[in-house]
């Protein structure tokens, strides 16, 4: 078949050109994203209920939603947290659940639950998480005049948001920090009292004026007309002129005579700051099929247009997440460039010719283009996961091409003509190279069956590696010999000899191999010592999720832990940002409740999230400790968490769930642990772990009001009037709302602008007989600490402590069980520790499957049950080289260094397979010892060239700087260490293993 194809070079060349052209078209159709589009198996239901306590939200809203969601298909856990004015239900599903269907079903359940929820409750928001939900950029918008914040909010919501949504590739535009306009009613209580009127009269008057006629029509002869009110109230001027009937029909006055009516910004529950100035932030999310590199310049251009169109406002772009993708693409481009240059240099160094390196320069881009067509066929986007798979596959492609070129040249030296050299030289290495590719696929492809996000990410990587390996096999076996024929068909008599450099290397190898061969047992023993070194380093090296990268950004989470409102929170945060100005270049903050539609967090009014960007990493290192000192000095009650700002890749793996959590509840599902119980609980865990109070145990000072119902009955007072008056005085009591063409303007009473006790004295309640009594006579109050959050799961309300630095939860379980029995409680242990343990068990099983697959593939190639073990025994030695260089360089075991070790695995098995396959072929005509020595000489050049090209191609990464280099450096270090040791393993360790594994009978035949 191969001879048939190579005898028609022009036809095959035309087919390749057509395939490359089709691949170019496919490449331009590929979406470019930061991460593959993955549905996270989680749904969040967010609830907002102004002026409602945490207890009310839990009992009236969250409990109903949580219990009705338990029947969702694939649901693994349901949890909720209620706090004042807001609540959240988190639904965790088994991975593999169809989240689109679950999202639709959850919305349908919310619609059916509407009659069971409070009447004036805003519809709960159902949020489905996806990797595509991560914003690609944040656009900061701030007014030059603080008084223009209302105008800015309206402009952003109605104009800027829509202009951004119209851009091709933009999926969602989310906003935080907007302020709505309300109509405020400020009664003149002295006038009301003199006229014997109350707030109820004002509220009733406004409500009656806002009644809608609805769908009413009249018939006039043969025509029918719909009726519409022409005098509907829509603004403060209309409200001011509403008539109020005085008691006992003493006359009619205008509403403006008893109250002040005006527009005002609503009472804020949260703010957004850019620097120390209040503003808005717009987060832009791309569509799944959009190309981020093409979208980002358009966004920047639109922002510049905003600056020109609206000079009264300031615009800026921050937290551009496309930089990580750009760096990944640049790294791939640099790998191709440097790989090609170094391959050319190494081939020239070993072969002297320029045509062989040029073959590599043609095969690499052709293979890459053909791989893109497979990307299109399998619907894989260009992202940092699939690009990393391409980078791994390209290294293997270089190795395969070098082996084929070297074997063709070997056949030409043996006297074969050009066509026979290309055919026979390629056919001889088809089986070992195909086995090497299949063994590499055997490592990656089973990883897609891992559970969770990790398995989904490996899916893209496994498919990209399978694509590039499949294409590389095709190009290695067809394109390389085809181009070789085209380059050398008119130069049959000229064959470049090996270079002077390689001749010297060959002589050195023969002498060193002779020395090792004379001391076989000692040499094998010394080389085998690398295996326990690798095992020891696995335990000694520090472990972490991601390598340390140069950070220039910090996230500070602040919980003031005091009963302050959003305005006070804002003032404190501005003061802190001003303090940071001298050593930071940029700051922004989200204060209190956030308005993002896709926000899955329920931040309280006392919470602030501050983002700081520094000029360089050294400024960050010096500045971070200052923050702790600042808060200890100025706000000792505040709880802060200082951490490096995560990039989008890290955000995907972050979770708010604790590593281990002990949940306590009583049989009635309502538990309120006392402070003494909490302290006892923390003390019994102190020796075993670090315990932190869960959200259900966080406390804050609250004012408790006790109503004397006997007095209310005696004086003929209505309990509902008492509650309404309290809401008018201290809450945002909404009378009604005016609607006009989609705009909704709430009408609210103005709060009492006096202290709490004075307000209680000022509030008056009218009895059935029309007599006013001060509310203070019917209530008592006290200030005391209370739990500010209510946490619950499928079993009901619980309170918990979170644990870290523990060895095994089985040690802690009897401690918690004993404590729970003493307190008549029930305890459950949960957390990500159990999921991690399950994933680890799954990973071990998958790796065992991978090893078995590799063994079966190698068994089929060598037709031996023993020789596959010779290949696999080289892996620990290569890993030892990776771990030793990682240890010397001060690195750690992390995701990126793990990828590097997988690269080493792919190259090591390639070299070992080639060596053993060559020995097997030579043993057909040579004795065992001679076959081993000759195989070493025959495969010396491709093995050493593979190592040189791979090591030299990735060495520049070690000396580069920036986040891209920081992420790629562990891959480079482990690859270089593994390749250097792996080269000596293939040259010396494999022959010794082969010798000792052969039977005595075979040795005697030499």
Entry keywords:
19% strand; elongated; Multidrug efflux transporter AcrB transmembrane fold; 30 strands; nine-stranded antiparallel sheet; alpha+beta; 1006 residues; single chain; Alpha-Beta Plaits; 6 domains; Multidrug efflux transporter AcrB TolC docking domain, DN and DC subdomains
Description of the structure:
By secondary structure, the protein is α+β, with helices and mostly antiparallel strands. The protein folds into six domains: 1-30 and 324-489, Multidrug efflux transporter AcrB transmembrane fold (Up-down Bundle); 36-130, Multidrug efflux transporter AcrB pore domain (Alpha-Beta Plaits, 2-Layer Sandwich); 182-214 and 231-265 and 702-785, Multidrug efflux transporter AcrB TolC docking domain, DN and DC subdomains (2-Layer Sandwich), CATH 3.30.2090; 498-548 and 864-1006, Multidrug efflux transporter AcrB transmembrane domain (Multidrug efflux transporter AcrB transmembrane fold); 553-583 and 598-655, Alpha-Beta Plaits (2-Layer Sandwich), CATH 3.30.70; 661-698 and 788-830, Alpha-Beta Plaits (2-Layer Sandwich), CATH 3.30.70. It is built from 33 helices and 30 strands. The strands form seven sheets. Strands 1, 2, 3, 4, 20, 21, 28, 29 and 30 form a nine-stranded antiparallel beta sheet that branches. Strands 5, 6, 13, 14, 15, 16, 17, 18 and 19 form a nine-stranded antiparallel beta sheet that branches. A four-stranded mixed beta sheet has the order 12-7-24-23. Strand 23 (734-740) and strand 24 (743-749) form a beta hairpin. The chain starts with a helix and ends with a helix. InterPro entries: AcrB_DN_DC_subdom, Acrflvin-R. It holds the Pfam family ACR_tran. This is AcrB/AcrD/AcrF family protein.
């Amino acid at each position: 078949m191969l001879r048939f194809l190579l005898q028609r070079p022009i036809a095959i060349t035309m087919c390749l050109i057509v395939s490359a052209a089709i691949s170019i078209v496919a490449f331009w159709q590929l979406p470019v994203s930061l991460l593959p589009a993955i549905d996270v198996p989680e749904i969040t239901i967010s609830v907002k209920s102004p002026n409602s306590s945490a207890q009310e939200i839990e009992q009236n809203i969250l409990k109903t939603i949580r219990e009705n969601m338990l029947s969702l298909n694939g649901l693994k856990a349901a949890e909720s947290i209620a706090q004042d004015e807001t609540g959240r239900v988190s639904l965790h599903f088994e991975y593999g659940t169809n989240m689109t269907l679950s999202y639709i079903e959850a919305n349908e359940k919310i619609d059916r639950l509407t009659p069971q929820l409070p009447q004036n409750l805003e519809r709960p928001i159902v949020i489905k998480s996806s990797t595509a939900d991560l914003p690609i950029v944040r656009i900061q918008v701030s007014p030059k005049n603080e008084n223009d914040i209302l105008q800015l909010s309206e402009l952003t919501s109605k104009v800027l948001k829509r202009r951004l949504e119209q851009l091709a590739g933009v999926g969602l535009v989310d906003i935080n920090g907007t302020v709505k306009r309300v109509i405020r009613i400020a009664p003149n209580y002295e006038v009301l009292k003199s006229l014997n009127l109350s707030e109820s009269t004002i509220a009733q008057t406004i409500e009656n004026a806002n009644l809608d006629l609805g769908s009413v029509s009249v018939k006039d002869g043969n025509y029918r007309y719909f009726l519409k009110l022409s005098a509907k109230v829509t603004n403060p001027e209309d409200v001011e002129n509403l008539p109020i009937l005085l008691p006992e029909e003493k006359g009619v006055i205008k509403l403006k005579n008893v109250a002040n009516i005006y527009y005002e910004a609503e009472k804020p529950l949260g703010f957004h700051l850019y620097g120390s100035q209040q503003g808005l932030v717009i987060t832009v999310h791309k569509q799944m099929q959009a190309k981020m590199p093409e979208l980002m310049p358009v966004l920047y251009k639109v922002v510049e247009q905003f600056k020109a169109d609206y000079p009264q406002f300031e615009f800026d772009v921050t937290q551009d997440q496309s930089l990580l993708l750009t760096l990944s693409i640049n790294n791939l481009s640099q790998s191709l460039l440097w790989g090609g240059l170094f391959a050319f240099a190494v081939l020239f160094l070993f072969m002297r010719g320029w045509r062989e390196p040029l073959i590599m320069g043609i095969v690499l881009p052709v293979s890459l283009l053909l791989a893109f067509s497979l990307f299109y066929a399998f619907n894989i986007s260009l992202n940092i996961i699939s690009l990393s798979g391409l980078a791994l596959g390209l290294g293997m492609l270089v190795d395969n091409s070098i082996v084929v070129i070297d074997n063709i040249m070997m056949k030409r030296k043996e006297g074969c003509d050009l066509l026979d050299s290309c055919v026979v030289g390629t056919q001889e290495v088809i089986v070992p190279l195909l086995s090497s590719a299949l063994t590499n696929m055997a490592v990656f492809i089973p990883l897609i069956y891992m559970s969770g996000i990790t398995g989904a990410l490996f899916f893209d990587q496994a498919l990209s590696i399978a694509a590039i390996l499949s294409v590389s096999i095709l190009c290695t076996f067809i394109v390389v010999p085809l181009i070789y024929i085209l380059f050398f068909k008119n130069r049959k008599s000229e064959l470049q000899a090996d270079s002077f450099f390689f001749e010297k290397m060959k002589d050195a190898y023969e002498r060193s191999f002779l020395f090792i061969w004379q001391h076989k047992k000692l040499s094998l023993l010394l080389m085998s010592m690398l295996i326990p070194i690798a095992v020891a380093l696995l335990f000694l090296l520090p472990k972490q999720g991601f390598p340390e990268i140069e950070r220039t950004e910090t996230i500070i989470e602040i919980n003031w832990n005091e009963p302050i409102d959003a305005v006070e929170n804002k003032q404190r945060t501005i003061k802190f940002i001003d303090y940071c100005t001298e050593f930071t270049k940029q700051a922004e903050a989200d204060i209190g409740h956030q308005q993002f539609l896709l926000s899955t967090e329920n931040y309280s009014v006392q919470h602030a999230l501050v983002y700081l960007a520094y000029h360089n990493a050294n400024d960050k290192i010096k500045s971070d400790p200052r923050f702790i000192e600042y808060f200890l000095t100025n706000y000792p009650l505040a709880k802060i968490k200082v951490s490096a700002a995560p990039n989008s890749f890290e955000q995907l793996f972050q979770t708010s769930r604790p590593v281990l959590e002990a949940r306590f509840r009583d049989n009635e599902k309502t538990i309120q642990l006392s402070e003494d119980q909490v302290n006892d609980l923390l003390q019994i865990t102190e020796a075993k772990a670090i315990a932190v109070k869960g959200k259900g145990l966080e406390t804050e000072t609250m004012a408790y009001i006790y109503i004397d119902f006997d007095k209310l009955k005696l004086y003929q007072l209505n309990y509902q009037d008492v509650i309404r008056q309290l809401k008018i005085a201290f809450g945002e009591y909404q009378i009604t709302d005016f609607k006009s063409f989609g705009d909704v303007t709430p009408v609210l009473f103005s709060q009492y602008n006096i202290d709490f006790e004075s307000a209680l004295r000022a509030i008056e309640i009218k009895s059935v007989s029309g007599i006013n009594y001060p509310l203070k006579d019917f209530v008592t109050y006290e200030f005391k600490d209370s739990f500010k959050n209510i946490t619950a799961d499928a079993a009901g309300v619980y309170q918990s402590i979170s644990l870290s630095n523990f060895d095994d939860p089985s040690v802690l379980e009897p401690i918690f069980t004993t404590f729970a029995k003493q307190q008549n409680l029930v305890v459950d242990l949960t957390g990500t520790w159990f999921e991690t343990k399950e994933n680890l068990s799954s990973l071990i099983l998958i790796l065992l499957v991978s090893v078995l697959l590799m063994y079966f593939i190698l068994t089929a190639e060598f037709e031996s049950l023993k020789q596959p073990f010779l290949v696999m025994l080289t892996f620990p030695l290569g890993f030892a080289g990776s771990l030793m260089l990682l240890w010397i360089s001060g690195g750690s075991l992390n995701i990126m260094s793990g990828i590097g070790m997988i690269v080493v695995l792919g190259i090591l098995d390639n070299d070992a397979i080639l060596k053993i396959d060559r020995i097997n072929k030579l043993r057909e005509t040579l004795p065992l010892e001679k076959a081993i020595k000759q195989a070493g000489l025959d495969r010396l050049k491709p093995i050493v060239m593979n190592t040189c090209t791979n090591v030299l191609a990735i060495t520049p990464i070690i000396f580069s700087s920036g986040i891209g280099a920081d992420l790629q450096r562990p891959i480079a270090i482990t690859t270089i260490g593994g390749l250097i040791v792996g080269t000596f393993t293939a040259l010396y360790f494999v022959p010794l293993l082969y010798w000792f594994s052969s039977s005595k009978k075979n040795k005697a035949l030499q």
